[in-house]
Amino acid sequence: MSVEQLRLAVYRGFADTGRAPTGQELAVTLGVSEDTVRWGLHTLHEQRHIVVRDGAVAMAHPFSSVPLGFSVMGPQTLWWGGCAWDSFALPHLVGVDVLVATRCPGCGRALAWNVDNRTPPSGDEVAHFLLPVTMLWDDVVHACGNQRLFCGEPCVAEWLTATGQERGCVMDLATLWRLAQHWYEGRLSRGYERRDPTTAAAYFASVGLKGPFWGQ
Ligand SMILES: [Zn+2]
Ligand SMILES: [Zn+2]
Fold it and tell me: Which residues touch 15 (CB under 8 Å, ≥6 apart)?
């Protein structure tokens, strides 16, 4: 078993079922021992392809097995959406139309959008990312958990005051959708390579996200 075969099995499992395959399931799929799977998952975690917690796959971006405030409903499959970015990325990666649902952290209102891979959803809601991309991997689950969607600027301001936090970056739905559009491209295919910081910064700039927050 190569580590790349394991990565693909994790991603395929998430894409098809909405949940992370267990170590036992991966061992059966790949015809290897559970120890080999454990070693492989650890390697993928070290390489930042996935996030392993307590021996299980917690995240394989844009997929998540831990709830971070979003659900993403496809025609056949229900996913935890990870963050706002990840939830909007799922229709691009998996190629199905979805319903993204969340609760505004500012006022608690229920929010939902039909999201597809053709045009950005309409709406006046905004996304707020708390932590700059350069800090994402310090604690990626925490960072993802703070990339949320709000009714609008007033709800962002209210939430920041209530939680005593500094404003990060606010963007409209169309920008979030374009950010999500190609970011995870190729992750369901063999030979995927993560972007280095320079390529990532160029990608962010191409969708209009610039400055130190975006690693430039
Ligand atoms: Zn609100
Ligand atoms: Zn995320």
Answer: 63, 77, 93, 94, 188
